[in-house]
Structures are given as C-alpha cells and as structure tokens.
Amino acid sequence: MGAKHVFGEVPVLPVVVPLGGAVLVVALWHLHRQRMLSASRAAVALALGVYAAGIVANTVFPIYLDKPSSPTRWTQFLNLMPGGGYELADAAMNVCVFVPLGVLLSLAAPRWPWWRVLAAAAAVSLFIELTQYVTANLLAGGHIADVNDLASNVVGAGAGLLLLAALSRVPIGARLLARFRWCEPQRTHQSTRSGSPALPWVSPEALGSSQGRGRTESTDCQSCAWSRDCRPRHERRRRSLPCRQRRARGRT
C-alpha cells in the first residue's frame, strides 16, 4: 500500500528541473540573438528559470496519478467570492511570491508599460489557478482555485514594479539596474548629404542652423522606460555641439 502511494505521486524534481532549464536556455538564446548577452543579464535569465521552477513546484504539486474516484463536485475546489474566508497570512504570502515576478518582468522587458507587466503577471497567476483547479479534481492536487490568490498575485507584481521604479530614480540604482536590463540604446542616423557625419543622440532641434544648409540629421535614443543611463551621454553631446557647429561654419 505504501509502495503504491509512493509510485502514484508524481515526483517534483523530474518535472520542474527540466522546466527551469528550458526557460534558462530560451532566455540565454534570446539574449545572444539580440547581442545583449552579459554576465548580469545571464543572471536575470537564471533567476527566471529558478523562479519558474519554484512557482510550479509550490503551486501545482503534489499531484497523484492513482486518485480514487469520488463523488466530489468540481465546485468544491473553486472559490469565486472575494475575501470569503481568505486569511491575511495567505494574502501576504501570495503578494510576496509575485514581487520577484514584477521585478524580473521589468528587467527582461524594460520597454513594456506598467499595465503590460501587470497583465502578464495576471496571465501567469490565472494559468496557475486553472492548473490548480484541474489537478485538484483530476489528480488529487492539494490546492484550490481562488480568485483572492489571483488578486494578491497581481498586487505583488505591482509592488515589484514600483520597487524597481523607485530604485531606478536613485543614480546609483539606475546605473546598477542598467546592467541587468535587457535593452541597449539604439541609434538611428539619417543624412541627406553624403559624407556629412551624423551626431548620435542629438535631437534635430538642437542642430539649429545646420538644417538650413541642406543637411538634416535625426537621431533617436530608445532607452529603457525606467532608465536614465544614457542621459550623461546626451549631455556631453549637447555641450560639444556648439563647437562642432562653429567648425562646420568655418569649413563652408
């Protein structure tokens, strides 16, 4: 009887370890393909893999393949009443569990607006609740689907998003986070006269009279939504711009 119970339970590690490894490989491949692979960004990819494995291990398991038949209704494992019988300790735990997800999503997708990060976190939480509902009815899972868990998880992701946004407002924190964010400043240069050098990260308005001489240059710095890591380069370019304009006038 004991051996049957042991072999009837689905082991956790053979499922979650390959899952975490797959998430890590896909994330590293994406970083390599976008030419953004670095040690700090690889650490974020590793954190994503570990987090995915941990979430599945703690929210889906245990499950059993030898679940005995019972007349239990499916509605027994579903709670759609907000606040109904929901303890404060459970709410705090669910909030804390999803704080890392808000941070990791903001680092891995820094150009996403806040509502998209929350929507992604809500989708992950909804998938977990649906999985718990199915496994509770079919595989004797030890969890139920609860709408309060969904709300607490979204609040936790929002807390992680706000924490990262507050840290990015501190100069030291912004420089540190820039190492972990999956984005690079992108440059675009346009010139109507061949041979004329473009000034990177300088707005067309700052070019002044250079546009009147038949040369138009437009640049764009697409940096992170929460990061100001390229601002010092902006300022250095703007300070050196008048000297370049004077040299350009002297050559004409």
Summarize the helices and strands and which ones pair or pack.
Blueprint: H1 2-8, H2 13-33, H3 39-59, E1 78-79, H4 88-108, H5 114-138, E2 145-146, H6 147-168, H7 171-180, H8 231-251
Parallel strand pairs: 1-2
Short description:
The protein has 252 residues and is mainly α. It is 59% helix and 2% strand.
Describe this structure in words.
With 252 residues, the protein is mainly alpha-helical. The protein has two domains: 8-67 and 74-180, no CATH class; 204-251, no CATH class. The chain contains eight helices and two strands. The chain has helices at 2-8, 13-33, 39-59, 88-108, 114-138, 147-168, 171-180, 231-251; strands at 78-79, 145-146. The chain has a two-stranded parallel sheet with strand order 1-2. The protein is globular and about 60 Å long. The model is unreliable at 185-230 (pLDDT under 50). The chain crosses the membrane at residues 12-31, 43-65, 85-107, 114-134, 154-172. Residues 208-225 have a biased composition (Polar residues). InterPro entries: Teicoplanin_resist-assoc, VanZ-like. Keywords: Membrane, Transmembrane, Transmembrane helix.
Structural key phrases:
globular; 252 residues; 8 helices; 2 domains; mainly alpha; two-stranded parallel ribbon
